[in-house]
């Protein structure tokens, strides 16, 4: 992306979906301990998908508006469908991204793609490889990922900032905007209305807001 391989990012689909087992009505969902408490995790958009949120913001920048809904979680002929939360986020650049997480029955659907003004890229897991599609080329270029994990690179960035007295690239403001993007998506679920963001944070969000429904 930094080398401009696909030009300016204009659209994307960021999916992190788990594979669930079929569940008859009345059968409890298997406990995940502390992860079942929204007060601990912030719900699935923050508990696991926050890494995808961080990636999306690093590519597309600050959000301008978002609409979000929850599908599933209903009975169909005695069987309960898992819940899937789906948002469409428009960024200040004008780029539009579909952001999706939850579970599907027996169907692994994890995958990511970014469309740019001059090409596109896709990958199915954080270990790569990344497929880069360029205009006029019949086949994509396969780009291997470096073996270093993202957590390690973030810690190196933080330690370098501490040692130099400078600013970490992934700083507290960036983290606040990640959480703000998610809370705005939850707010859209609750109100059924579009959430508007200002300087990367949701406007008119009640003080101390925390979603309790997902």
In short:
25% of the residues lie in helices and 33% in strands. It has 214 residues and is of the alpha+beta class.
Residue fraction in strands = 25-35%
Class from helix and strand fractions = alpha+beta
Distance separating the two termini: 33 Å
CATH topology: Dihydrodipicolinate Reductase, domain 2
Mean pLDDT, rounded to whole units?
A: 91
Please, could you describe this protein's structure?
- This protein has one domain: 2-Layer Sandwich (Dihydrodipicolinate Reductase, domain 2).
- The chain is globular and about 50 Å long.
- With 214 residues, it is an alpha+beta fold.
- A ten-stranded mixed beta sheet has the order 11-10-9-8-1-7-6-3-12-13, with helices on one face. A three-stranded antiparallel beta sheet has the order 2-5-4, with no helix packed on it.
- The model has no long low-confidence stretch (mean pLDDT 91).
In terms of topology, how is this protein built?
Blueprint: E1 9-20, E2 23-24, H1 38-41, H2 44-47, H3 50-60, E3 63-71, E4 75-76, E5 79-80, E6 84-91, E7 96-105, E8 111-116, E9 119-123, E10 130-134, E11 141-143, H4 150-164, H5 172-191, E12 195-198, E13 201-202
Helix pairs in contact: 3-5
Task: Pick out its properties.
214 residues, alpha+beta, Dihydrodipicolinate Reductase, domain 2, ten-stranded mixed beta sheet, three-stranded antiparallel beta sheet, 5 helices, 25% helix, globular
């Amino acid at each position: 992306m930094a080398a401009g391989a696909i030009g300016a990012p204009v659209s994307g689909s960021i999916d992190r979906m788990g594979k669930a087992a079929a569940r008859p009505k009345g059968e409890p969902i298997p406990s995940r301990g502390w992860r079942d408490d929204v007060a601990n995790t912030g719900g699935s958009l923050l508990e696991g998908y926050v890494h995808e949120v961080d990636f999306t913001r690093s590519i597309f920048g600050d959000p301008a508006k978002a609409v979000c809904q929850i599908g599933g979680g209903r009975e169909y002929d005695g069987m309960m469908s898992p819940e899937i939360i789906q948002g469409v986020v428009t960024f200040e650049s004008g780029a539009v991204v579909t952001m999706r997480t939850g579970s599907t029955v027996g169907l692994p659907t994890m995958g990511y793609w970014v469309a740019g003004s001059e090409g596109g890229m896709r990958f199915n897991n954080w270990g790569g490889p990344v497929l880069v599609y360029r205009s006029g080329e019949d086949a994509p270029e396969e780009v291997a990922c470096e073996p270093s994990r993202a957590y390690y690179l973030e810690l190196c960035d933080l330690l370098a900032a501490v040692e130099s007295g400078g600013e970490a690239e992934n700083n507290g403001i960036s983290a606040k905007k990640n959480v703000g993007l998610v809370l705005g998506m939850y707010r859209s679920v609750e109100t059924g209305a579009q959430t508007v963001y200002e300087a990367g944070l949701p406007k008119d969000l009640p003080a101390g807001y925390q979603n309790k429904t997902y």
